């Protein structure tokens, strides 16, 4: 019951973005709103929340056919929540405004991303710094 209540509350909060979008559209005539398009970022937050939290719906439908134990189903939903809620929070933060999106996309490098994901980084050996007598300055 608690899990169902929390998920219903999360879906309700996602749908509460709709009045926010309507309220923001009232100010769409302002130059800042035309430039930044804040309703787009709120819409991305709403879609991300609904998309990631709706991953449980196919599981419920499939398991209702297979007669799976309710304890196993609850455990699976808890694991999904543990994995999905941080992703929702991060996506909501990263896509909350134009500056964040611009920074994210400008610093994103697909080659570097794949190297990190696939653990293909080339290791550079760490060597101690060597000092010569001429490079050391004495402080008097």
Automatic annotation (TrEMBL):
Keyword Ribonucleoprotein: no
Keywords: Membrane, Transmembrane, Transmembrane helix
Coiled-coil annotated spans: none
Regions crossing the membrane: 6-22, 42-63, 75-96
Keyword Membrane among UniProt keywords: yes
Record Pfam families: 7TM_GPCR_Srz (PF10325)
Protein name from the UniProt record: Serpentine receptor class gamma
